[in-house]
Amino acid sequence: MTVTQTLRGLLRRWYILVVGLVVAVAVAAGVWTAVPPTYTRTSTQILLPGSGMIPSGSNPYLFVGGLAPAADIIVRGLGSKNVIEEVVRGRAGTTVQVARDQTTSGPVILITVESTSDRDAAAVLSAMNQRTASLLDSLQAEENIPERRRISVVAVSVDKRGTAEQKQRLMMTGASGAAILVLTVLLASFVDGAMARRRARRAEDADGESSTDEEAGEASGSDEDGATDEASAVSGSNESDNSGEIDEDSRAPEQTRSRAEDVADLHDSGEADSERGPVAPESTDRDSSTSRSAASPVDSTDDADLPDRRGDRGERAPIG
Questions:
Q1: Tens-digit pLDDT profile for residues 171-196
Q2: Within this chain, do residues 14 and 118 fall inside the same structural domain, yes or no?
Q3: Radius of gyration (Cα) for the chain, nearest Å?
Q4: What are 106-116's pLDDT values in tens digits?
Q5: Phi then psi dihedrals of residue 270, to 5 deg
Q6: Mean pLDDT across the stretch 289-315?
Q7: Which one, of 113, 88, 89, 85, lies nearest residue 99 by Cα?
Q8: What is d(CA 75, CA 253) in angstroms, rounded to the nearest whole number?
Q9: Domain identity same for 24 and 130
Q10: First-to-last CA distance in the chain?
């Protein structure tokens, strides 16, 4: 399926897209409302040498170069899992990161607190700053370092107001809306494909029914033609039989009349022969001359005179 066909299918199912868009907007708005912004607060602390480690009246910030290892030790102690869990206990959605400030070369400790509540972020940041000082004092006390030679920690900057970050909020809102839109497009494509397949099946069924009807029509037409031909043949044979009977019926009176005329002629010839002498009657069948000559008592001389007498009466029409 090409991009053009996909777009046409989506346009045909525009109502699904509209409903999906409305649902996506509603879900995105709900997520935006449900997910609060993330508040971030930071603090930076620097380690300073004790007064007994620098010349009297000197600036302690000029002697911080050798305190970087001590800063790494403090970072390790503050960033441990046990310390962080103890500080953030009861404050859901709060995270703490402790690291050295990579933007400076001095022993600067950077503490970053993120929370869904600005108040929780402020409380956790304050607790972490106090933990830095307490951890540093406890480590030096364990080593029995004199007070004048102990390292101290000073807060350089502490955020008084949290910075609201919408990154996570935007990501979750966009992800939910995009997921709904993708599901909407997939649903519209699926519905369009299902409707197209249904139309294709209906068209195939309609074509099959039409072809079946055509075949049935052709079969019935051929049957009707065959029946018509048979009826025509039967009627033709009946007509021929009837015509034959009519011809026979029409010929029957003619044969009867011709036979009656033959009988009358024979009667007349009998009367004429009776005047001349006894003459045997002539057979009606002219084809059997042998049987006639055997049955007649007239001799050959009388037989020779018969044509003359027939000539006097005229020639009879043949029978049949």
A1: 999 999 999 999 998 888 888 888 88
A2: no
A3: 69
A4: 899 999 999 98
A5: -65, -40
A6: 44
A7: 113
A8: 150
A9: no
A10: 94
